[in-house]
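Record GPC5 protein, 368 aa.
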Amino acid sequence: DLQICQHRAPTCCTKKMEESYQAAVRRERTQSIQALNFELKYMIVGHITAFQEAFESLLRFAENRTSSLFETAYRPMAKEAAEPVKELFTDLSLYILGAETTVESAVLRFFDSLFPLVYSRLINPGITDLSEDYTECLRLTRQDINPFGRYSKNMVTELSESLWASRMLSQALSLGIEVINTTEHAAVTKECGRALVKMQYCPHCQGLTLIRPCVGYCLNVMRGCLASVAELDGQWREFISTLEYLAGEVAASQALEVALLGMWSSINEAILHAQLNGPQLSATVDKVCGQPKQPEANLSSASVVPVKEVAEAQTFVMAHASLNSKRREFINYMKRSRTFYASVAERLCDGDLVMRDSSTCWNGEDVV
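=>
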């Protein structure tokens, strides 16, 4: 009553053994593909981690630099500015990781939060009425009167251009892992299961436990079983070309480094612009939001301390160099994996599965 390992000679197999063999070949096929995928997946996961760590290091440096701007140049508002600064860099980090947000919304939200502080601590220092309603009115007014001039929009443009490629590369790497995981668990069809049993276990039914499949026979069976996986070949090659392009964009002219390094300068210029236009801004705000309560003695708004150049640039450059080095190593490895999905059958039939150095092998029907 055997369904797969039918043979003229006497057999030592039963139908139940055949069913066990079918379960075994499904399990073994999954394990063998996982073993093939392991190195590729390890490289991609490793690069995702290295990429995120290096990028977070760059962001932390830029955040510390921006915080130091407020502590040295705008001390009256440094404590209150800490939260908007933190939010800005958190939003940028989430953007890189693929969150449903934009650089523009992150930057403009930061300047919305910054304007009430600049207005009440620098343009009109000593304002005591900073109620929620008055603060919200200042936030909304920022969008209409544009107190920070072109600097806020310039910052959006510079960051959007340099962070876009990093975001796309991060998403592409995650997609690569998804594809690999999907191929590991591709269903084994009934026909494929029967063909694998016939190739690997039917010789056992005749007591031929040491005979292995012939190379050509193995390739035919594996190519049939992995036809759906091999169809990924064209898209996988295209995917690797896209990775190359994005990695090149991330490294191009150190745009990422320049944009993050320049953030504190853009914010400083924006605040100075608002201070220079203080009287006009005050007149407009008074019309829209009403006049805030003022103490009798007004503090001078001219006490702007020049910003000291931060001397920790070496850490920043090292993080960027580390990112570029990891990127080159990774892209070189991925280029070598271009034919990964075209050659899965060949790689599975390479090694212990088939008989290479012997004159006898199993052809699916008999020993030849």
